[in-house]
Fold:
Amino acid sequence: MESTEYIKAYINRAAAAQRVFETWPQEKVDEAVRLIGKVVYDNAETLAEMAVAETGMGNVPDKTLKNRGKPSIIWSSLKGRKSRGIIARNEVEGVVEIAKPVGVIAAVTPCTNPIVTPMCNAMFALKGGNAIIFTPHHRAINSSSYTVNLINKELAAIGAPADIIQILGQQSRENTRELLAQADVVVATGGMGMVKAAYSSGKPAFGVGAGNVQCIIGRDADFKAAVPKIVTGRCFDNGIICSAEQSVIVHEDDYDLVMAEFGRNRTYRSPASEIPAFRKAVFPEGKMNPDLVGQSALKVAAMAGIKVPDDTLLILLEADGRGRVDLLSKEKMCPVMSIYRYTDFSDAVDIAEANLEYEGAGHSVSIHSDNISDIESAALRLKASRFVINQTSSTSAGGSFFNGFSPTTTLGCGSWGNNSISENLSYRHLINISRIGYYMAGNKVPDEAELWS
Structure:
């Protein structure tokens, strides 16, 4: 079947289902949203095993944790929030807000996150009364499709329209482009090529930018607390999380103490003589090696021809310089981390800035410190959308029970990362809001002197 007609059939089914679903009251909508998260939560390990087996990326224990953690924090954030009908009344300003669906959403999902990204986007879409159609990555068709089918089985049991969530049965670039063009709104999570295609679709689009999280360890930091968090973040799911720490920036006087702490956390600190081999393995011809994406530190070492201890979780490499001076300043989608020395906090920010200008502008920065002045000076200077303080960035930048970031799997990077939003995507981005403006007869109008004084 011609791609245009093939996708049109999906769109027509979705639009018909959406017209029914938008009549559902808030309570029924929330029941559907809860079920989506609960399906992934209840099948966390099975879905993790499927994803790893199919994509060859990441690891089952971490994906299992993610498949339980993400639905929990996302549902907790959505529970009880109004998203249908009148959602707010501002008596002071005389404005009433009414939520309305955007319609049919096209969602591009990545092979690095084939379970919780569809889950998250489906929860947001249905929370706003929308229908959603997924186009899965070709390396994750089976696991993403299985997840959607599990969800649809549960939704059918509560009477949800059959086509409120769909996933393309035939995956191709042509079908994906056609889906983006025919849908009402596009959500794209994946490589920059796909995100650019989403923004070129002619439809409102939400995409993500490249990650390259810079991690600054302040002089006041508790190294014994900070380093395990950094190691956990860099190694989580074998390093494929876009919000994972990539470079650690340490004061020159604290360097040996911090290195010793990394050593106690199953980190292999490469001697200078081995760094070129690791650099070549991770970045052959200057680009991330696709064969190492989501692979273990042991596999990275084997590809570099370096023998490391069998229990190694992380490989730590001292960069030759900041930014474009060294490829190690870029995002490394495996358990490899670069390290830099700074002289004062301003210098640390300079290093982070140079690395972000090379890759990852707009995404996230991690800081381990209690010095509010330093933290806010960094936030004022650096082009990043979120600053994660004293936390594991990979599992916290996308929202957690311990910060106020909106829980999501889609992290906007603003204009710095060629994105339309500089915040975490939520259901609020997938609703239209009508506003009633009442005449406020009692409002005071300033006279000329008051206005211009």
